[in-house]
């Protein structure tokens, strides 16, 4: 058994990747699988420093109405309850009801994306790890699976729906099996980790909302589509099944626990998510509420300490917006809340700020372009990247960046209304007009 060169101690991947925990472990409601004390976690303390300090903020300069395109656009919007703001650099090119606070719907995910990229490295990945105590050719007790909020952990079929290849369940199981174990004397146990499993927010129409979002948890499998009550156990079951297919016998039934990661365990392997910027692109393309709330919980845990929750993620988004000069109301990150509020002027102001960040261009390109995701059948022929949004009360939103043909430059825009089915068609007409005619 020359393969047992495994390093002991807390899982290296979990510690290295746990950017969301505080200096001490959270309280432990139940700890039935080990008598070891909670391990220290080496991460930055939650504080106001969770975001990079913004540079000097410049208010957008008011528009100067000298060009016929503004009159044309104003005529198009006459009599409609819609807000439209367009900015080029620090100049507000056009503003119609731009100060009116409106529901952003899934444009909330754009706010989340900006806050995430100010808090975490663009290339950061989220680990999912396995560890156990070793005893000869067998794992003496339980095999623990620990997640830190990778929403892409799953089998090949699920990951294919996200545009990813391979099964991370299979990859993790193969790493464990490759160490030469013959049996897990205990069971595979999924640990809750540093994110709470809360599944509601202020402004959600909860019964309806839960049809559009699975429970967001630190350890998830296949987007938690199969289990609303015990996703950690579901993940453990998936890993158990794959281990047994690979010839590793698992004695006990899959389980779950809220305990912290066992201190004297040895790392058996780990897998990671795609880079953060790619996760943002996956989330934005199909407007994934699940990915949004998982990532937001990580953000909340980094800023305010674990466990990360939907509320703490929303609070972090609010703080980030305020640091960058915008007043908003955020209750979630997915945009399912009917109580979220932002004006189009505030949205383009924030977008203008982040385009000055070194990662601003990467964020823009991560958003869908015509022919992709929620823009699959919209705005063909235009050069643009944008995030759509809609709710059942008729809210319709579209915010992003569009290439101005006359200026040969990118401009930030935001459109929000409560026009229902008529909203997307009017949004498209506005963006087409702006792309082809707008100028300083």
Task: Briefly say what this structure is.
With 440 residues, this protein is of the alpha/beta class.
Draw up the topology in text.
Layout: H1 12-17, H2 68-77, E1 82-88, E2 91-96, H3 108-119, E3 127-132, E4 134-135, E5 138-139, E6 143-147, H4 156-161, H5 168-177, E7 183-184, E8 188-191, H6 206-209, H7 231-245, E9 249-250, E10 255-257, E11 266-272, H8 276-286, H9 289-304, H10 310-323, H11 344-354, H12 360-366, E12 384-390, E13 396-404, E14 409-417, H13 422-437
Parallel strand pairs: 5-7, 6-8, 7-9, 8-10
Antiparallel strand pairs: 1-2, 1-14, 3-6, 3-11, 4-5, 12-13, 13-14
What is the number of beta strands?
14
Let me know the largest β-sheet: 5 strands, antiparallel
Radius of gyration: 24 Å
Q: In DSSP terms, counting alpha (H) and pi (I) runs of 4 or more, how many helices?
A: 13
